[in-house]
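Inputs:
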Amino acid sequence: MNVLVAGGAGFIGSHLTDALLDANNFVVCVDNLCLGSVDMIRHNLKNPNYIFYELDMCEDTKLDELFKKHSFERVYHLAANSDIQKGGGDPGIDFHDTFLTTVSLLNAMRRHNINELLFASTSAVYGDKPGLLKEDAGDLRPVSYYGASKLAAEAFISAYAAMNGMRTNIIRFPNVVGPRLTHGVIFDFIAKLRNNPDELEILGDGNQEKPYIFVSDLIEAMLMMSYKECVDIFNVGVKTSTTVKRIADIVCEEMGLGRVKYRFTGGTSGWLGDVPKFQYDLSKIHANGWMAKHASDEAVRLAARSAI
Amino acid sequence: MNVLVAGGAGFIGSHLTDALLDANNFVVCVDNLCLGSVDMIRHNLKNPNYIFYELDMCEDTKLDELFKKHSFERVYHLAANSDIQKGGGDPGIDFHDTFLTTVSLLNAMRRHNINELLFASTSAVYGDKPGLLKEDAGDLRPVSYYGASKLAAEAFISAYAAMNGMRTNIIRFPNVVGPRLTHGVIFDFIAKLRNNPDELEILGDGNQEKPYIFVSDLIEAMLMMSYKECVDIFNVGVKTSTTVKRIADIVCEEMGLGRVKYRFTGGTSGWLGDVPKFQYDLSKIHANGWMAKHASDEAVRLAARSAI
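Outputs:
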């Protein structure tokens, strides 16, 4: 199959690309190398079934040329800012990188009659909502520009799909970890501990608790999607979760550091726009025959190990 | 109070302006005169408590100048394409006029620390959903670019409000009718019957059935909102509804036309992206002490009468 992976040189996009190539697809990768990097995809650059274009998805004319040149059968859209904390200081970052990239892609798909889309969405669309989050939950009030950008993107996907006969899957990712991480709490802790192995600053009170999925589990879920519905939305995650303090413990253990002093900045959330605790209802994706192989703590440990 | 009415030279915006001036506010009106017109606001142009600026809300620099010059205490945002059918042919129309105007306004409010916003949303955010629509309904799948643009705007309002301490009211309008209508089914029927009083083409099968609110009722609801919550969402509408065929009957009666032959184009919806039937659960706004004075049929009749 001839597919486009938008954001294909990023952490998750590069793993997805590897899996798509393994499954004998022809993969065109587009990335603006804002968070992604050539290091993530170097191993594929000589693969005859792979082409990489350095391109911002919002460059409509160039995107049009790409769609003309390659007859895509499906688009995987993972291009986004994805660093929620960074986006908090400037709403323009997620507006452009997370939201506009989606609209630009939808317009290209519409112009070129491409009808299959997988969209990487996020738990952040739910906002700071208590209880088990189910796909059909209402009253979604995102509290970050990132969450708003993804929810807005979902809204546009719904209308483009209905108006143009597209079949789309929206997967709401939890925190994703694994080799090639570019940012996030594990990445930060390792950097801080390398700088000072005696003390670790932890944002918030350390009790923030989220499910962490290992990237290979997520990729498996992405590959098993069927494209039957106008819009089908899935939470993909793990039943277990890990507190930030537990992540610190795991990272210290994996780095062989025994007596690190933790210094908490305080407050229930790590930064403005952070959702300190959430957990998914996963019954829909489980009923579809997928279940994560790694628990949350295990995913964190494997990711830390690969990054040290 | 010093307020900005975005889209203030449009059908609803001009009525809102009249009411705000009656209540002793200083009103700055911004409109790009795309759907709005000077005819709608001519009666206020010499009012010392009123200023009109012809401006596209997406012109950030000019909008900044406006926010610097006038210290707004509240923003009423009604700027939008609002002609859903027209927007169906080109997704760029609602993207710019309905969605981008909102983001541009939110950015200006953020830069200038303006914290109170009333946003004109729509039933179209619910998509084609059966049953009584409640504000906290989930699984919102807009089927028009207009509905997507409004739902996306709601998502961004949620994040800007949370990140910047804004207090916002989102009012989901049903079909609104009354004097100064610029488009829509009543407007179309009158134009067609003026052209040919013997036969009337009706889009769809005529059984599309929606609640029509008289504009003065809607304005009353908009004026009684308090600004306490980060995001408060209200359906505003009427319990009754009117079929398209009944609208044709009412328009013919008001025009004094006895024997008009109806020709239906067929199909359950009038056009691609149309939601043929819906009805609101209005318990939230009713509990807040507001109820529409005019039933749906009555609103249609009064609107037809004022347009003939």
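Remarks. Chain B touches chain A at residues 88, 91, 95, 99, 103, 106-107, 110, 125, 127, 134-145, 147-149, 151-153, 155-156, 158-160, 162-163, 230-231, 233, 272-273 (CB under 8 Å). The mean pLDDT of chain B is 96.
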